[in-house]
Structures are given as C-alpha cells and as structure tokens.
Amino acid sequence: MRSVISGRAYTYYQYDSRAFGARLRGVLRTRMPDLVHLDSLDLHRWLPELPQVPIACTHHDIESDLLRRRARSLPQAGLRHYMLLQADRVERLERELCPRLALNVMMSDVDARKLQELAAGVATVVVPNGTDTDYFEPNGSDSVAGRVAFMGPTYSYPNRDAVEFLLQEIWPKVRAADHSTTLRLIGRCAPADRARYDAEPGVTTLGYLPDVRPPLLQARCCVVPIRIGGGTRIKILDAWAMGKAVVSTSIGCEGLDAVDGENILIRDTPDAMASAVLQVLRDARLRSHLERNARRTATETYSWSVVGRLIRSAYDQLLTRSFVLHQPIPTLSRSTE
Description:
With 337 residues, the protein is an alpha/beta fold.
C-alpha cells in the first residue's frame, strides 16, 4: 500500500530494515571498502548510504521483465494492473540507476542485452550462476526406471506455475502412455498444495530436503516446465552437475549454454514435453548422451571455480581503474523511482 501511495517501487519498502541500516552505518564508520557488491537492485534504497567507491550490482534477472511476464499470467484484473504498475516503476529504476553503477553483473547474455536496451551506456559483464560440481556429482548408482523429478519450492510463483502446468497438462499425458512412471516433487510447499499434488497418480511430494541429491540420483529425467522467469535456472545447473537428462521449456533454460538434443531437450507444448519425457525414460542411448554432455557442460562452464574466476577478474579490473561511478548516486526521491 505504501508503494501505491508514494509512487516508489515496492522493493524500496520490502527491503527496509532499521537493524540493517544501523549495522551498515556502523561498519562504514569503522572501515572503508574498496568496492561494494550489491546483490540485487532490490536493495536500491541503500545506495545513498554507500561511499564513493566502485559499486557493482548483480541482476539475477531483469526484474521489470519478470514482473510483466508474471502479470500476463494472472487472471485477476486488479492484481494484473498492480503488477504492471510495479513493472513500470522497477523499469524506471533500471533505466536511471544502472548506468550510474560501475558494473552490472548479469546472469546471461540474454539479460545483458535486455539491460543494455533499457539503459543507454550501462556497463555490464556476464557472470553466470554456478553449481558446486564437487557436491553435485554422479556417484555411479542406478536411477529408478520411470522416475521423473521436478525441483523447486512452490512459494516461488514461477515454480508454482510450473508445477500446476506439469500436473494439469503434461503429467496426465505421460501417465496415459506409461502407468509405471512416477514423479517426485522436491521443494517446500504449503500443506494444502502438498495434499493436492499427492492426490495425482504416481506423484509424491517430498517437500523441503536438506540434501536433494538422493532423489535426484534416482531420477531418470528432470523436468523444468517453467513458463515465467528470467536470469538462469539453478535447478538445471544442479541437475546437469549430477549428470541428469533434462527436459525444459525454452524459458526454463533461457540464458544457459543449452543445446537441444545435446545436453537437454527443449520443448514448449504439453504434448511435446510429455513426448520428450517418455523418450528420455525409454531410450537409454539418448539418455546416456544427454547425461554425459550435461555433466561436461556443468564442469566446464558452470563450476564455481570457473564462475569465481570470472567475477574475480571483473572486480580486479574495477579496482585497477581510476574511475568510481559514472555519476554519484543521488538521494532517492519519488521522481528517481
């Protein structure tokens, strides 16, 4: 409500915290950083508090684009209007603040291009999400015949939409073709949703697990029917690291080094996704091909050692430059947002 009345983006209030503000000011009084890493433009309300040193901001997605995608899927006119209103306000932030930052760290080339189109003169570098390829790795154990897995908490709207899409439009087609198939849903969800999901034939909701590797090891196919999203899907990176065959929508693997038929199967309609899942389950040769390439992609492109070198190199370059910011970050006003 404060956002609607004030004209500010909702994140200005969502990430307000007296305790955090006091801690931030206390730390800055005792030592001056050489560089500040802002882990999302959601934290923009704190920019005026920061010293005049290089500021790098990670963009896990293009938030304005994500909000518009979500708005298009909402049946309620009032909520859809509110989401589009916030998308406009967040886009204004992206346009006005991102060019003033020393560096904008993007998850993919796709997101980098989107931000460059939004904000003229913005400095970007692509450093993808990563996965712990030592923690997530195949252990030689056999997968379970007919086993499919989806990973992600349904309190996240894109995951919730994906599960609904999977259970309503894809899974019935898989089960109709093969009654022995089973689906495991991995990730936190509300009790009412869990009961509803478990009522579907062959479906078991595992909920939150401190270690997701055992059910991933059992899966012969990981499915990612994401229809709303931005950034990159860490669930695919973890599945790839485990050497798993993945079937995803185009949006689900957007921005990743995904090659259809090599390290993933990319399908966008319920019929095509169901057919691809069945193909992976039935065709051992195809499955083995996807699994080998998945693991190779994870280790060569998305391991923490590779990603770490990229971000360290980008920050080292910032620290050796003589410039701090394109422009000082102003005290945020309604017009700025």
